[in-house]
């Protein structure tokens, strides 16, 4: 597989966020407290991702990862991937993925009022077997945490 193709196996969404290493460093040097919103999730995808196209033309994928909690139960973690790469649609049930992103609370209208849900908005998604990409994702996560000490 070529590097270009392998590069497509990692979904990356860059944005200026309060959880980025650069903004954390500038906040700390300015004497402000450092806040980080960082999630690293590794688990099994029980179902294929659901990919849809929004009215704006932006593609959005949603999926869940089942993550063990230490006992015999597992937690299902909802994941949102903006502009997912094509390979994400080829994920089969039972495949292990690693996601690096941030928690996001979303609000929506429902009968009887406003509802909300919490999910992980992915910055990077990779297959757990792709060590090189996962190592890069973990270095990115570690970089975001460095300003904390």
Q: Explain this structure to me?
A:
The chain has one domain: Beta Barrel (OB fold (Dihydrolipoamide Acetyltransferase, E2P)). Strands 1, 2, 3, 4, 5, 6 and 7 form a seven-stranded mixed beta sheet that branches. Residues 1-28 have low confidence and may be disordered. It has helices spanning 3-7, 21-29, 131-145; strands spanning 11-12, 39-45, 50-53, 59-68, 74-82, 95-110, 113-127. With 149 residues, it is α+β, with helices and mostly antiparallel strands. It is built from three helices and seven strands.
Question: What is the topology?
Answer:
Layout: H1 3-7, E1 11-12, H2 21-29, E2 39-45, E3 50-53, E4 59-68, E5 74-82, E6 95-110, E7 113-127, H3 131-145
Parallel strand pairs: 5-7
Antiparallel strand pairs: 1-7, 2-6, 3-4, 4-5, 6-7
Give the ordered list of helices and strands: HEHEEEEEEH
Question: How far apart are the termini?
Answer: 39 Å
Share in β-strands? 35-45%
Category by helix and strand content: alpha+beta
The figure for the number of domains is 1
Total of helices: 3
- Range of helix content: 10-25%
Output the CATH topology. OB fold (Dihydrolipoamide Acetyltransferase, E2P)
Largest sheet at a glance? 7 strands, mixed
Low-pLDDT windows of residues: 1-28
CATH architecture classification name: Beta Barrel
> Measured on Cα atoms, how large is the radius of gyration?
17 Å
CATH class: Mainly Beta
Number of strands: 7
* Shape summary: globular
Kindly report the name of the CATH homologous superfamily: Nucleic acid-binding proteins
Average pLDDT works out at 81
